[in-house]
Write a structure and sequence with these properties.
Blueprint (H helix, E strand, L loop, with lengths): L1 E9 L4 H11 L8 E7 L16 E7 L2 H8 L2 H4 L2 H7 E9 L3
Antiparallel strand pairs: 1-3, 1-4, 2-3
Length: 100
């Protein structure tokens, strides 16, 4: 099992476009033995300490294997909507991990 944590920073004013991409991409995760474990939109009030910019969203996704994650990234249906992600996401930080 692998875990993917993603810090997502949006271009200003592109929230609706990002949400449209997410509505298409998130259901595809399950096709590849994946699960959206957590999706958070952190507010200033909920951050105790930080040395980085507050992300628009934080996602935690699990996949049974690295191969499943790679197949998800190559999914043809998901690729149809990548232009929405490219338009709306300024930067994304991806952190891979495993349960210990």
């Amino acid at each position: 099992m692998i875990y993917i944590t993603q810090l997502i920073y949006l271009n200003e004013g592109e929230e609706a476009v990002f949400n449209e991409f997410e509505s298409m991409a998130i259901p595809i995760i399950a096709k590849y033995n994946g699960k959206l474990e957590l999706r958070i939109r952190p507010s200033k009030e909920n951050i105790i300490d930080s040395s980085i910019e507050r992300p628009y969203e934080v996602h935690l996704v699990s996949f049974l294997s690295e191969e499943d994650f790679e197949r998800f990234k190559l999914d043809a249906e998901r690729k149809k909507y990548l232009h929405l992600k490219e338009q709306s996401v300024r930067v994304s930080i991806l952190i891979k991990g495993m349960q210990i």
